[in-house]
């Protein structure tokens, strides 16, 4: 009798280990889950899965994980991440539906429970259906979500279940993703319809409290997302109304996480609207609501919101204390208690928000230093943030007396405006342009001013 086949020992995936960088396996797994939520996928990634990939036990990720990894590391193919070609992995196609998976492309959740692979496939297919139902691509992929289906016949004539709760959650994620990539101006008006539909669902009949809670949380998060679109496109009154609506929803549902998020954005809005004391009070209320959630990253962001308000009040000592607290909290790292909406808050955003504080305080050297770091650290996949951070850098350079460098940064920011529509960014660049006009004899400055005027006319 022939000896049993011995599988070769797995070869460690060195390339994937390098992509993890300084993050622990648990921190990297949390980053994978957040990235999945950004694109509407669901993966149950944990430290064990990361270890199996790095050890070579998982030679090729399943399709859901592959989409997430491509999103995390744009421009890289699976081979660039150290994975084997899918067709080379043994056993594919040999497994029957419902049998225990043996395929090394399966995730831990799928490999533990027979039949879960089919449910995962169904979930991915449903995810695609939801995307098509709630988002339709326009010329710049900026069309907004619509919670489809016929309108209810009247009060009490509609039921809501898992599918409706999931629909609202998908709409929130999709709007956030498009805002990250393209900015708010093209999205805001189109986002009113899904928001209205989400709040209509709160009057629908639900059989389970868990579904009702998800609907309230989803509607509140959608209100905040739409409020942010208004905020970023300069519609401050509309933004204030949407944030207040989200706060009321949080209070009705008794949802501390949603309440902290609403107050966080209200603080940000108050700072931008020139009401620094209100910004401080809202940030402190957010910290009170969020303290029990166990997320150091959340508390770090809220400390930064407080610092922004304190800087606006001219209280340098208190602002510095809040900035130090924010960095100390941030250093604890990411964890599973971090809210889903905080996927934007990485080291680049930390540097950007600190740059804004120093700028308001008039310390241009520190502002430039932190703005440079923000630009260098930001994932180039998100054009909006690159444009935002570069615009901040341009303004700080202009104020610090470096017109050539400011003009160069301003030109780089203008280069992103064919992809990004944001009143905030446009306003920042217009301010930089006004500061640089007295240096118009400088060829670099003249080039920026000409290009800025051309771009402004085209918008």
UniProtKB/TrEMBL annotation:
Region (Disordered): 75-128, 143-165
SUPFAM superfamilies the UniProt entry points to: TPR-like
UniProt feature, compositional bias: Polar residues: 102-114
Superkingdom assignment: Bacteria
InterPro entries, A to Z: TPR-like_helical_dom_sf
Protein name per the record: Tetratricopeptide repeat protein
Organism: Streptomyces luteosporeus
């Amino acid at each position: 009798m022939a000896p049993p086949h011995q599988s070769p020992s797995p070869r460690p995936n060195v390339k994937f280990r390098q992509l993890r960088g300084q993050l622990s396996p648990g921190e990297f797994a949390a980053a994978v889950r957040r990235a999945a939520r950004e694109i509407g996928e669901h993966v149950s990634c944990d430290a064990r899965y990361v270890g199996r990939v790095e050890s070579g036990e998982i030679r090729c990720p399943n399709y859901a994980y592959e989409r997430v990894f491509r999103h995390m590391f744009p421009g890289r193919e699976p081979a660039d991440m150290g994975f084997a070609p899918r067709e080379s992995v043994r056993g594919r196609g040999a497994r029957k539906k419902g049998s225990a998976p043996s395929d090394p492309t399966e995730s831990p959740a799928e490999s533990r429970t027979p039949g879960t692979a089919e449910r995962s496939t169904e979930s991915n297919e449903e995810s695609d259906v939801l995307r098509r139902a709630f988002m339709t691509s326009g010329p710049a992929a900026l069309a907004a979500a619509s919670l489809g289906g016929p309108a209810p016949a009247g009060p009490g004539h509609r039921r809501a279940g898992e599918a409706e709760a999931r629909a609202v959650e998908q709409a929130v994620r999709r709007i956030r993703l498009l805002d990250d990539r393209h900015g708010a101006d093209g999205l805001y008006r189109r986002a009113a319809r899904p928001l209205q539909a989400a709040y209509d669902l709160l009057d629908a009949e639900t059989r389970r409290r868990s579904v009702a809670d998800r609907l309230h949380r989803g509607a509140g998060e959608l209100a905040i997302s739409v409020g942010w679109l208004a905020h970023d496109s300069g519609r401050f009154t509309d933004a204030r109304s949407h944030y207040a609506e989200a706060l009321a929803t949080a209070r009705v549902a008794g949802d501390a996480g949603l309440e902290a998020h609403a107050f966080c954005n209200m603080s940000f809005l108050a700072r931008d609207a020139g009401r620094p004391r209100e910004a401080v009070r809202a940030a402190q209320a957010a910290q009170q609501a969020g303290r029990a959630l166990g997320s150091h990253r959340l508390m770090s962001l809220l400390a930064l919101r407080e610092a922004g308000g304190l800087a606006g009040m001219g209280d340098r000592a208190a602002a510095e204390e809040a900035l130090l607290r924010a960095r100390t909290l941030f250093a604890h790292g990411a964890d599973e208690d971090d809210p889903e909406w905080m996927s934007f808050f990485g080291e680049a955003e930390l540097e950007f928000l600190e740059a804004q504080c120093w700028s308001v305080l008039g310390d241009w050297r520190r502002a430039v230093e932190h703005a440079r770091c923000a630009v260098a650290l930001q994932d180039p996949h998100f054009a909006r943030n690159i444009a935002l951070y570069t615009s901040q850098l341009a303004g700080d350079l202009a104020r610090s007396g470096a017109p050539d460098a400011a003009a160069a940064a301003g030109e780089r920011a203008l280069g992103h405006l064919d992809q990004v529509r944001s009143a905030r960014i446009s306003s920042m660049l217009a301010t930089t342009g006004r500061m640089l006009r007295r240096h118009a004899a400088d060829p670099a400055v003249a080039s920026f001013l000409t290009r800025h005027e051309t771009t402004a006319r085209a918008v």
